[in-house]
Amino acid sequence: MQAILAKWAAGDHEAAIKDLVQYLQDHSEDIEAYVTLATFLTTLKDFEQAEALLQKALTQFPNEAALTYALGTLYYQAEAYQQAVPLFMQLVQDSQSTDAQYMLAQTYHQLEQNPRALAFALTVQEQEPDQLDANLLVGDILTSLGDFDQAQTYLKKALTIAPQNGEVLFKYGLTQLVLGADSEPYFEQAKHYAPDYFKKNKQQLIDIEGFMQAKKQKE
Questions:
Q1: Residues 134-171: tens digit of each pLDDT
Q2: Are 89 and 104 in contact (CB under 8 A)?
Q3: Is the residue at 39 inside a domain?
Q4: Do 156 and 203 belong to one domain?
Q5: Burial class (CB in 10 A: 0-12, 13-18, 19+), 149
């Protein structure tokens, strides 16, 4: 397996997949190998092959949580969110898996079912209060719900954990802007640490600035 992973890491994706398929023919009970192959295929956006592989593996090993999680993640990445929900929900009910709860929150967030998303995201954040992704997700969901004050609380925690993370700086800056506090230093740092992210999301900043200006004029 190490040689296969090395090939993949070196960019020889076709050879790595070919070798892993052969490996699975000889080691058909290696669950991790199924998950790895599905991950390879998903990375290459070959969702159909990855789905077929995982569904076949699940008929052989129906109680393997790693396969269920991998299939849920595949559906999430393929934006088939409705198909992802029952898989992550099953894992949450079976094991209270933090990873599954996080992915369930992410999936509900993508479906714009934010109150449900928030319930699962808060559970994860309470279990792992120093986890960057959990705090960031809670902040994102609260922002979507229009609760910028509460969103800022969690984004501030995320900023404490990762003070040079461009995405966190940008999102914290947005809450500062909406709440009428000084936001410019955060946007400048976001632009410095994550120029591509800033460029991609600059329109969101422009939209909010326009909204704030219009609100001031009405007042």
A1: 999 999 999 999 999 999 999 999 999 999 999 999 99
A2: yes
A3: yes
A4: yes
A5: exposed
